[in-house]
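Journal club side-thread
Mid-discussion, someone asked how the predicted structure for our own chain would compare to the paper's figures. Pasting it here so we can look after the session.
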Amino acid sequence: MLKNQVHPAAIRSRNLITDSLLVLMKNSSYEEITVKEITDQAVLTRRTFYAHFKTKEEVIDYKINGLNGELTSIISNHSNKDHHEIALLYFGFWVDHIDLLMQLYEHNLMQLLFNNFEKNIRDIRSYFGCTLSEQDEQYADYSSAFFTSVLSSILNRWIETGAKESAKELVKLLEQITYKFSSSFRDS
């Protein structure tokens, strides 16, 4: 194996642990689930769990990081990079993963998704007109926080209200909100 390459058995173990935690979360409170229950479900040892993760939160973050990486790749590889298309890809991706979002929401873990997304948004924010220079780290931090907050708040409200809107409807709402928001600054 090459240096910095993860062994396939390690990936398999991480995925088994992650899938087992998500299965257990369908019937149990996240807080009450033990590492032993996760490893029993995964048919692995506690030692294997701790070889890959320190906490259950790291397990969830591993899952979320994989999904946010997949989303970033989808957006980066899409030929049309206008705001409308990027927002449609973003919301469409999460519509396709509504079951996981509902689980995170039900277990009060949405903040893990948002924190992880803020780290990953740096790779795609240039498509929103937020190009960076080495000297403008403050702008980078605040623009990441802004876009994360806006997109996360819309996702959160969508879940709270039963996830009835389609990705296209969510994009339309986002466009209306940002237009009115930016107009109010120009008018004042």
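Post-session note: The two ends are 60 Å apart (CA to CA).
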